[in-house]
Amino acid sequence: MNVIYAARHILTMNPARPEATHVAVRDGRILGAGTLQELAGWGKHTLDERFADKVLMPDLVEGHSHAMEGTFWRYVYTGYFDRMDPAGSIWPGAKSIEAVLARLREAGDALKDPLAPLSGWGLDPIYFRERRVGRADLDQVSAARAIGVLHASGHILNVNTKALELAGLLRKGVNHPGIPLGADGLPTGELKGLDPMIMAGSHVGFDREVLAADEMGLRYFGKLCVRKGVTTAADLAALIRDGIPKYAKVGVKPE
Fold first, then answer.
1. 3-class secondary structure, 232
2. Pick from 160, 184, 183, 144: which is nearest to 100 by CA?
3. Same-domain check for residues 211 and 193
4. Residue 23 in contact with residue 56, Cβ under 8 Å?
5. Among residues 126, 136, 125, 138, which one has the least CA distance to residue 183?
6. Are the C-beta atoms of residues 135 and 166 closer than 8 Å to each other?
7. Is 195 helix (H, G, I), strand (E, B) or coil?
8. Residues near 188 by Cβ (< 8 Å), separated by ≥ 6?
């Protein structure tokens, strides 16, 4: 017995027939999409109208994702654009360095341990014209706790003076292309590339294990996928652990 589902609108992704009002299914496989009259030709059927007021479209496959975003949502979002978290709440974009610092300061004030590290992510200073985020900026949030803010690219980490100190980088004359120096000869707090980021990452919540994501991180990642209609995703950054292939695919079952 076929089941024909009615919908308010169906996007087929087929340029020869881009839209439809009904889709026929048999034994879990789609037979076709079109009008009810057209699909009735497939044989005996029942009409299911549970999606009559919905828009239907094929599921999405994300071929290059990073499950670590699920873990990042435990940290402070400091991106320029509005972004939805796993729970469906919208975080407004931070449109200036001052807005980034204010959000970090609010999160830091909520931490019970005055020395606990503070982690932010999503920073995109290309929208702040010629101004960069330096350790002096992050020191305004706290000079006592280590602070690290990961860029949206994932390839640059900004840290404050305390984090540089814990990483052994608060010294003059550091000779590394990924560690720019300020007029005082000390690192500016912007760490570019994997090598310097690893040195400070463990002190600000961004060690390599973040890439693997724990159970909660994977669940958050799954919720993000469901909200966008992604049912299958390939993580191209996961670490090799416990025999799990580096490029393991994560199947997301909508809740």
1. strand
2. 160
3. no
4. yes
5. 136
6. no
7. helix
8. 132, 134, 135, 180, 181, 182
31 with 137, same domain: the answer is no
Q: Which domain holds residue 212?
A: 60-75+207-255
Give the residues across from 53 on adjacent strands.
none
Same domain as 152, residue 183: yes
State the Cα–Cα distance between residues 255 and 253, nearest whole angstrom.
6
Does the residue 84 lie in any domain? no
Residue whose tokens read 């009810």: 36
pTM of the model: 0.77
Residue pLDDT, tens place only, 126-152: 999 888 899 999 999 999 999 999 999
Q: Which two tokens stand for residue 199?
A: 């040195």
Give me the number of domains the chain comprises. Answer: 3
- Residue 83 domain flag: no
Higher local confidence (pLDDT), 144 or 245: 144
- CA dist., res. 172 & res. 175, Å (int): 9
Please check whether residue 164 lies inside any domain of the structure. Answer: yes
Does one domain contain both 167 and 98? yes
Average pLDDT, the chain: 90
Whether 94 and 198 map to the same domain: the answer is yes
| Beta-sheet strand order (sheet of 60-65) | 60-65, 230-235, 249-251
43, burial (CB in 10 Å: exposed 0-12, middle 13-18, buried 19+) = exposed
What are the backbone dihedrals phi and psi of residue 81, each rounded to the nearest 5 degrees, phi first?
Answer: -100, 155
Amino acid at residue number 230 = V
* 120 plus 165 within the same structural domain: yes
